[in-house]
Design a protein that fits this description.
By secondary structure, this protein is α/β, with parallel strands linked by helices. Helix content is 40%, strand content 19%. A five-stranded mixed beta sheet has the order 3-2-1-4-5, with helices on both faces. A five-stranded mixed beta sheet has the order 8-7-6-9-10, sandwiched between helices. The structure holds 5'-O-[(R)-(carboxyoxy)(hydroxy)phosphoryl]adenosine and zinc ion (ZN). 5'-O-[(R)-(carboxyoxy)(hydroxy)phosphoryl]adenosine binds next to helix 4 and helix 5.
């Protein structure tokens, strides 16, 4: 079954065709990131306008790369939320139009479910039950997934998402949006023990997260001070170490308490090299099976939306499909 999927929840305009939820036939991602550098974050109106500009070329590109005509597409899937309303609307209206014109079923799909299903885009997907850490610019969630569509939220952030903390700390260090990749690189040159930043909620006894206190702790160190190159790398490394410590600790606690062997780590922040390495070392040591998708499937793309749609097939009448910026996972 070939699913043509559209993802447009924020600043990426993405389309893909995936066969049977596992094989990517084509995947195209256009990003308006460079237009958000100056504003140090995404301005929703700017992102929505770029979605409009990029959408049709990105649809065309994927269809020609997959060498598919619409007859060979079996269903259309689209991210209906969560995300920014203006951006979501462009993808949703495009998907509704294509499904109508091509006379194919339309599968509305949750963006966060997409991040989870990045681990199914290969020939060795995880087994159930599993614990999943979804860490992105907008969300930080710990899930217990017993089967396709059987999901329990074990914990979530009480304030900022982990990626948001990377981006805001990046602003403090003079790094353009999105700051995660550069903090990742800077940290490799820094000493993580220089600043003893808090590990918020690490001993809270629950599985929730909090990142705003960590961000404020970094702010206190840089406020009214002259920061040289060495300080910058040490601040980045110390902040990253604190964030990684909390994310890893809570995920392993969830897996231990729920007696689950399989751990999935996904979403934009799962591209972080220290987070990936720490999870790998700990999981090897403790005997967990770890699933971290390749970096390009961790950040926003439409192939993961097609995979999520395939394994949770819930087509809806076209006129009922709407964008919902606050769409919940469960
Ligand atoms: O999943 P994603 O592409 O978009 C959302 O759904 O939010 O995640 C984007 C987030 C941004 O906050 C970005 O700074 C962060 O992922 N990110 C990283 C890395 N690459 C992207 N954070 C830390 N280390 C990275 N290597
Ligand atoms: Zn995302």
């Amino acid at each position: 079954m070939n699913i043509f999927a559209i993802e447009s929840s924020m600043d990426e305009t993405a389309t893909a065709v995936v066969a049977d939820g596992q094989k990517i036939l084509a995947s195209t991602v256009a990003s308006s990131k460079e237009f958000h550098k100056k504003t140090r974050g995404v301005v929703p109106e700017v992102a929505a306008r770029k979605q409009l500009e990029f959408m049709i070329p990105v649809v065309d590109q994927t269809l020609s790369e997959a060498r598919l005509t619409s007859q060979k597409v079996d269903a259309v899937a689209v991210t209906t939320g969560p995300g920014m309303i203006g951006s979501l609307l462009v993808g949703v209206e495009t998907a509704k139009t294509l499904a109508f014109v091509w006379e194919k079923p339309l599968i509305p799909t949750n963006h966060l479910l997409g991040h989870l299903y990045a681990s199914w885009l290969n020939s060795n997907p995880p087994d159930f039950p599993l614990v999943a850490l979804i860490v992105s610019g907008g969300h930080t969630l710990l899930l217990l997934v017993r089967d396709h569509g059987v999901i329990e939220v074990l914990g979530e952030t009480q304030d900022d998402a982990a990626g948001e903390a990377f981006d805001k700390v990046g602003t403090l260090l003079g790094i353009d949006y999105p700051a995660g990749p550069e903090i990742d690189q800077l940290s490799k040159k820094g000493d993580p023990s220089t600043f003893d930043f808090p590990r918020p909620l690490i001993t809270s006894g629950d599985l929730n997260f909090s990142f705003s206190g960590l961000k404020v702790a970094v702010l206190r160190q840089v406020k009214d001070k002259k920061i040289d190159k060495k300080d910058r790398t040490n601040l980045a490394a110390s902040f990253q170490q604190a964030a990684v410590d909390v994310l890893v600790k809570k995920t392993l606690t969830a897996a231990r308490d729920r007696k689950v062997r399989n751990i999935v780590v996904s979403g934009g922040v799962a591209a972080n090299s220290q987070l990936r390495e720490t999870f790998k070392n700990k999981c090897d040591l403790l005997g967990y099976d770890l699933f971290t998708p390749p970096v390009k499937l961790c950040t926003d793309n439409a192939a993961v939306i097609a995979a999520a749609a395939y394994f949770n097939q819930t087509p809806a009448a076209i006129f009922k499909v709407t964008a919902d910026p606050n769409l919940r996972l469960v």
